Amino acid sequence: MKPRILYTKPSITEREVVYATDAAQNGWGERCYEYINRFEQQFATHLGVAHAIATSSCTGALHMGMAALGIGPGDEVIMADTNWIASAAPIVHLGAKPVFVDIRPDSWCIDPAAAEAAITPRTKAILAVHIYGNLCDMDALLDLGRRHGIPVIEDAAEAIGSQHRGRRAGSMGVFGSFSFHGTKTLTTGEGGMFVTQDPALYERVLTLSNHGRARGQTKQFWPDVVGYKYKMSNLQAAIGCAQVERIDALIARKREIFQAYRQELRGLPGVHLNPEPPGTVNGAWMPTVVFDAETGVTREALQQAFAAENVDARVFFHPLSSLPMFDDCPQNRLAWSIPGRAINLPSYHDMTAPEIERVAAVVRQLATRAS
Ligand SMILES: *Cc1c(COP(=O)(O)O)cnc(C)c1O
User: Fold this and answer.
1) Terminal C-alpha separation, the chain
2) In which domain, by residue range, is 337 found?
């Protein structure tokens, strides 16, 4: 058996180790928020936003942000059927309903026309998730939001490094959320970030994030509302500080691996990699190949071929509406069809050129056999 090629793995250098060690030794008492404050500031600066709140997960950031927007029982939030459950779960937790619409063939992200058609008087938000680093059509979505008076939320967990005409993913909506789970471009083990340009929304989420204790409240142990507990620890934030100081290099390496795959798979008939339309940058969190239906190449064939090569490739997200807790929406044709002929390719920071070549060879072999 050839050596295993992992799917993702964080890049941890001496810097992360030094900061984490310092936090463990000294980051207590008076200094218990130092790395957290620094991480929030550095991340906000990277993104070009005014406010950031470090959280224990992206799911928590979404949950608090949606709660602060007043999303609750009876409300609807429109999102793409192609997604990870984490983006939909907070909507359900708030008693609202995720409304799943189809994706665009070019971006695998929410189709703005389908989103517009799904708007009802109960629609409280549109959730734009930049899947695998591919950007949603933010111009169309923001325009839609303005015309209907509906806020557009960005889940940018997969889109660190992605840019739309110079604006970073996560900085364009009413608020943005990020994940620092171990599989993401920037990691703190587990963790996330809430970001916004809106000072009032920031204050509301800040209060919610601290068990409902408002910043100006002088009484001790005095929550003003029932809040949440989704805080990041100073230890995790120490690793986050090291990672955010290296963020350009982390993104550059993701993009390098993506370019290498593009090069290796260039010209293969019926094979598509993540798009990067003019005026955008793809942060390339997850290089993914989608085969045209005509090739006859299936997810199962891809999984089998990668398993035989000892490569840890993962399946494309199942449509959320196909999961047991939601009603099927097979009318979301692309969301239901693409996963059956697609696969995520490994792309961890320290991946070597021969490893990239080994992965690409599997795709090439299937593509040429099919044509
Ligand atoms: C990873 C991911 C999440 C979940 O992040 P957690 O930090 O695990 O809560 C949410 N949304 C998207 C798009 C993700 O990729």
Assistant:
1) 28
2) 247-370
